[in-house]
Fold this sequence. Notes:
The chain is of the alpha+beta class. The chain has one domain (41-191). Helix content is 38%, strand content 25%. It contains four helices and five strands. Strands 1-2-3-4-5 form a five-stranded antiparallel β-sheet, covered by helices on one side. α2 (19-68) packs antiparallel against α4 (126-134).
Amino acid sequence: MNTNIHPSAQHHSEHGFNLVEVLIAMALLGTVLMTILTLFYMGRKNVYSGKQASVAVSVATHAMEDLSSRSKSDVLTAFKASAAAMGPVDVDLTTTMATDSYTASIARVSTIADDIDPTKNDPLGLLKKWSDEAKGRLDRGMVAVIMTPQKPYPVGSTLTAANATAMKIRILVRWSEGKRRREVILDSARLARP
């Protein structure tokens, strides 16, 4: 044993961390790590949600762009809606969102997983094109076009899609994120050209 070391120095070199100090340090480290991991998880979830919303906005915008150069009669023809019966329309029966029910309207709806028969209500393939654009990118998604004829219309007649002077067009893109339903709605109007 080395006798040149002062006894107080030898006693000081044997000091370390006691159990309480180690436990406190581990608790602090655990709290910091849990906070950081939570931030990463929430950040990832928000990025995914933003990506889904961007896809939906893109689909709805492309739909509006495709319809922007068309007149009211062209839009009605594109969805075989000129002679279609107007009435209450329920876009999606699986949810109770207030925007699902439209009175005196005509709707063309496609879930993104559907194979749309163009001979029915989409002869130009517009709804199919929009659904294909979102296919594989939106979970349980759907694209809908809701056409609502607006007044005025000829005096003494019943309002129909063909005789209304104006028509509100709504593009609705809806999808699910877990248990949460999300949607993007874009509205436009078309006037009958003389």
